[in-house]
Write a structure and sequence with these properties.
binds zinc ion, 74 residues
Amino acid sequence: MIICSRCKGNGYVKVRFEAEQAIEQCKVCHSQGEINENTYYHQTWTEGTEDSLAVYYGPPLDPESFKNYTISGE
Ligand SMILES: [Zn+2]
């Protein structure tokens, strides 16, 4: 298991909608705070001088290695 990069292991994320702040359960790790390295997840990042969007579906990557990395669920 590795730490969920969406919620940083908290199991929830703070979302801001207009002036309101809310707590949302993390859909990536299902509030567990950890994700399975063998599960496939939808991930994106940007690359190149034009920041073109790269889309990837597969085992979780290292967030530190990618610019604007996001993980958005199975
Ligand atoms: Zn999470």
